[in-house]
Every structure is written in C-alpha cells, then in structure tokens.
C-alpha cells in the first residue's frame, strides 16, 4: 500500500504575464523530508503557497490522502492537516507567544470566553517540550527575529500536522538554533509527518533531506535520492551550468593598505552599543561577526543615521561626521544594504528601475526633474553587475522573487557611488549562483577603493571575503581577527565566552531616565492618563466650590456619554485597521429617520427604535462592503458615505424636527439613586466591550486583522467578515448615540457636527490605539474622554472663555500625543 500523502500533478501558476510554474509534479510520502531547491525565482515558494491554500493553481491539481485537494484558503489547508512556515514571519507582534501559538484555537470556558490560564499553561508545556525557554505571556515584539522564527515553527508543530511546509526556516537561525530545528523536524518525521523543506543552504539539504526535488525557471528538472544529494550536483541542476567552488579569497588579494576612509571612536547607543571603536581603510573589507542580538545591525544603523549615538565620534576621511538622518549619510558617501529588504530596503508598488535609483536621486535629476532615460540607463548598467535579468527592470519590484529583490537592494547601494558600503546580510535569500556574482561585486567594490563593512550570519562569507573581522557580543567588540586568524571556530569562541555583567552599573547611570521612560511607555499609558485625570479633578475641587456639586458631576456624565458611545464604536474599527469618518453623519440621519417615523406613527415606539437601529446596521454594512468588497480605502469610503448621508439628511428635512419619544428623554436625563442613568449604562457598556475585546474570539480576531490583513488571512481568519463586523459595531453605537441625543435635546438636527467624529478618533489614539491597527485600549480611551470633558468643565468654572477652553484642550491633546510619539520613537530607534 502506498504511503503517499500529497501528490502534485501538472501544477502551473501564472501571475499576469509571468509564468511562475510549468507543469510541476511529484509525490510526498509520510515520514520523509523532501528538499525543494532552486535558484531565485524558480517557483519554490509559489508551490508551497499553492499547497497551503494561499494561491490557487492556474493549472493541474493535487491529491491529498487519495482525494482531490482544492484548498480555497489557508484555513482549509490547516483543517486538512497541512501546517506552513513561510519565508515571511506570520506572527502577530502585538500579541503574546501563547496567543500566537494558539491563534484562533480553543481554550474556552463554560461561558464561551477565552480561558487564558489554560492557554498559557498549554503553551508553556509546548515550549518546554520543544526546548525553548520563552515565557508564554511574553509579547512577540520583544523577541529576536530568530526567537520569532522558532516560535512560528513551534506553532506549526503544535498542530501535529500530517504535512509540514517549511520555507527557508533557518534564514535567521544560528548554528545551534538550526540544530534545534533539525531535531524537531526529525521528531515530527518519526511520528509520520511528511516535510517539504525549502532552503538555499545546500549543506542543510544534504544533511536533512531523504529526497530532493529541483526546480529551475518554474520547471521540475531533477529528482535526487538520498545517495545522490551532493552539493555540486544540486548546483548544476539549479543553475543549469557548472560553478567552480570558490575557496577562501583573502589570500588572493594583496589586502587593504589605503588610507582610513571611516573611523569610529568610543561609539555608544544607549541600551544597544557600548564603546565601539574601529576603522575601515580604502579597499578593505571589514567583516563583523556575532550571534543574533550581538548589536551588528545596530552598529550599521548608528553609522547610517537611523540610530542616534549617545556618545562617541564618527569620522569620514579624517573629518568629524554628524549623521542624524540617512539622507545625510548618503550625501557623505555612505550607503547600506538593509537586513530586512521588505521593511527597509524596497518601495513596493514601484518598478525595479525606480527602486534601483531611489537613493541616487541627486545624481539623476535634470533641472529638478527626473531624467527617465538616464535612470533606465543606470539601472540597466547595474543590473548586469548584480546578475539581475534586465527584463525585470520595468516590473513592479514585488513581482520579483526574494533573492532578486535582495539584488535590487544591493544594486541600489552601488548606484549611490558611495565610498563606504554597509552590507547587512547582503546575500540573504540569494541562490548559490547569484551569491558568487555578488561576492565578485563586493570584491570589485573593494578593489575600486571603497571601504566595505560586511555583516553576515554566514561566517563562511566573512572567512572568504574579509581582510579583518571584528567579533561582537552584547553590543561590544570582543575581539579582532586578521589574516589566517579569521576562521569560524575562532569567531564562535569569541561569541560564546562568558558574558560580562554590567547591569548594576547601567542601572546606576540611567535609573531616573529609565523610570521616566517607563512611566511614559505605551504599556503605562492608562496610568499616566489616570494621573492626569486625578490632577484635573483635584484642580477642579480646589478652584471652584461648585465643581463637586451633584448637579455638576451629573453634567459631566451626561456630556461624556455621547463620546463614550461613539469612541467604543470607533475603537473597534481602528483596532481592526480601519477608520470610520461617517459616524457623525450616521448619527444625524439616524436621528432624522427616527423622528420622521415617530411623527408618522406616534404610537409605534418600537418601530421607531427598530428603524433607527436598522439604519445603523445598513450604514455599517455599506461601509464594510465598500472597504472589503470594493477595496476602497477606508478613509475615502467612509468620508464619501458621510457626505452622502449628510445630503440625504438635508433632503429629508432642512430644519430641526421634534418631538423625541418620552422614554428616550427619561433615560437620557433621568437619575436612579441620585446617579444619572447613563452612568449605569456606560459602566455596563464598558464591561461588555471589555469582555468582547479581551475574552472573546471575535475581539482577538479584531486585533489580529488590524495588525496584518495578510498574516490574519494566512492564519486562516475570516478577514472580510471581521472587518465588516467592526463597521457594524461602529454604526450600531452611532445608533445608540442617536437615541441618547434625541433624549437630551428632544429633537433631531439635520446638520452634521464633524467634531464628534474627530474627537472620537482622537480619544482612541490618545488612549492607546494606532491608525496602523492592531492596538487599542478601551480603558485608556474612556479615561481620555473623562479627562477632556472634566478639563473643559474646570476651565469653565475658572472663568476661561469657551474659545480659550478649546485652545487649552487642543494644546493638551498635542502635548500628550507628542510625548507618546517621542517615547515610541526612542523605543524603536534607541535615541
């Protein structure tokens, strides 16, 4: 009986005019590791994503466990027993390790809410069994790239898949971490899992795989059995020609004896680098080795102006250098190749030609206009040097394979004509053939007199290319190797020596500053807002004898309640990565519709309320479908809907209309036990939405989708319905706000007040949300509402005019926003 679990038959895939796969077919059997190798653009990742349900094939088919397999989504593939680890990390950075391991999975208590304790205990067990010492409650954003990669691998294995798809899983892993991965893969294979393994590291393929399938230009060109898997044979099939094995090259070069092109003296960046000193000579390749987290990338970022040094001096050709922005670095002849091409190195949506020339605008302008002809000529010239097919130059850069994208980043640095190149993992994701070409370009640059700083996790590259090598650990240089001293064993020894402990010294130097930074960090935002609220409350209590009057306190509650309703709805949309500019207009037309129906049917209160609620639902569905199905930007879609709703309101009535139902007046203006009814309603809504956001599957899905549509889709979440649901929440809350304002004012006003929308957005952002999505705090948002309403009240009691009140309020909002943005900026840049 055959143990084949998955069969590919005649698989083809076309993206527009580009044919990524041509008639690919092979079998995958249980309990084996099949290597899938090929040069950049061979179609490896595309094939894995077809199997994972990310892309549908253009032709051919798949058979899974003897049945036709047509996955329409990653969720269907997951249900069928296929787990995937893609090149692009698919973790939600704003969530904990446990949440990522069990994204959208089980752990419900008898009330249907998330059982956090059970989830964390289960995650801790999985992490421990996998040999990872990572706290399950730790946010993924605090982990290194390598740790994130390992967590994603653990998540895939935790599903106990029948088939495991691994796409370049060791790209960010050290040697020890790679050994950890191989142990986990062998455990899964021993349990019967079939593994399809993609890697550019051919030594790994030889060590791990039982068979090897080789693609070239989207076609299957060879299948090798275990005994045939040799590096030379793999390379020949991958590139279609023989490539001479290049030995160490340092001995072939005379060495760098030019003048010092760059010098770094006692460079420090708080919390990242300490007392870094070195120099680079003209024509020299200076390698920098170290384990993940050693500070290699941070050092290059400090030189390039991304991180702000807190101490030390930089010099370029003897002159002191002050680089506060990458633009200044480029102007002084410093150019980088970024470690993360997707986030830092490329402009997606632009052509390859545009990306290649992006850092050299000053060198290609004609009377301040871009010389397109010269731009194309320069791009064509550099394409040949970096082994990039010139036919790709007019294409959008996102259409290229990962390796070809890396070549574009490298070519962009060369086109600046800089004399100091900062190369951070310049061959990451590049196939063996192109890697040799890039090595040649690096040596050619050095031979032309450029200084080169080369950071690489592949220490063989440093051994081959570097004239000198610095070894970093814990943000410091712990050793320097030259000549024949440069070997992997020596670098590993320096990297893994016992760490020096300076924690007490650091705490003594920066204790107060760290305390202030912690106080104003995003995690402590609610505490800061609560402190400001208490300060305003105290100021009001002291400044006016009427502030603590029961009537005044009730007025504060009544003034705040409409913002509570609108901000709750707006927060759901912002967390989900959208924005709703239609809420003021929605509230206006819902009020007008309610009064119109009540006038026509004065004895049908329920009809009036139901119509208002239905109008809110319809508006929410309209917003959601325009954004999700129509693929219209949320800002444009909801702004347009708001304008239309304003027009419809004025068509229905051009003047205020009344009366409102008496029950709405009673609820909006009444009290119970001396406390306004809206206080009870506000507390109930706060409790309900706190539970929804924190304790329900829908709430966690909101955060996941908001952080990344793509990650959420690849994780199998119903992205479209979640987004539509967020807009429904927003407009239903606008309906409730319409109920409330009808009760407060006794009638409906057809003119829209846009301040309600803008204020609700501001309160969400100050309370902890971000327009990028994936973050937001209900408690922080509601405290912000109370703070602003109370501030205006105190100013009014102090005799400050209404216009000055708005100025003070606006200034306070700006101060809070700027303070938090500065803290976030320093957290990301190390300033």
Topology:
Elements: E1 4-15, E2 18-29, E3 33-38, H1 44-51, E4 59-64, E5 67-69, H2 74-79, E6 82-85, H3 97-101, H4 116-129, H5 145-158, E7 163-167, H6 175-190, E8 194-198, H7 202-208, E9 211-216, E10 219-225, H8 231-239, E11 260-269, E12 273-281, E13 285-289, H9 296-304, E14 311-316, E15 319-321, H10 326-331, E16 334-337, H11 341-345, H12 352-356, E17 365-366, E18 369-370, H13 372-385, H14 402-415, E19 420-424, H15 432-447, E20 451-455, H16 459-465, E21 468-473, E22 476-482, H17 488-495, H18 503-519, H19 525-543, H20 550-575, H21 583-600, H22 605-628, H23 634-652, H24 662-669, E23 671-672, E24 675-676, H25 677-695, H26 697-707, H27 709-714, H28 719-745, H29 755-766, H30 778-797, H31 802-829
Parallel strand pairs: 3-8, 3-9, 6-7, 7-8, 13-20, 13-21, 16-19, 19-20
Antiparallel strand pairs: 1-2, 1-4, 4-5, 9-10, 11-12, 11-14, 14-15, 17-18, 21-22, 23-24
Structure commentary:
50% of the residues lie in helices and 16% in strands. The strands form 6 sheets. It has a 6-stranded mixed beta sheet, sandwiched between helices. Strands 16-19-20-13-21-22 form a 6-stranded mixed beta sheet, sandwiched between helices. It contains 31 helices and 24 strands. By secondary structure, the chain is an alpha/beta fold. The radius of gyration is 31 Å and the shape is globular.
Widest sheet: strand order? 6-7-8-3-9-10
Shape: globular
Number of strands: 24
| Integer-rounded radius of gyration | 31 Å
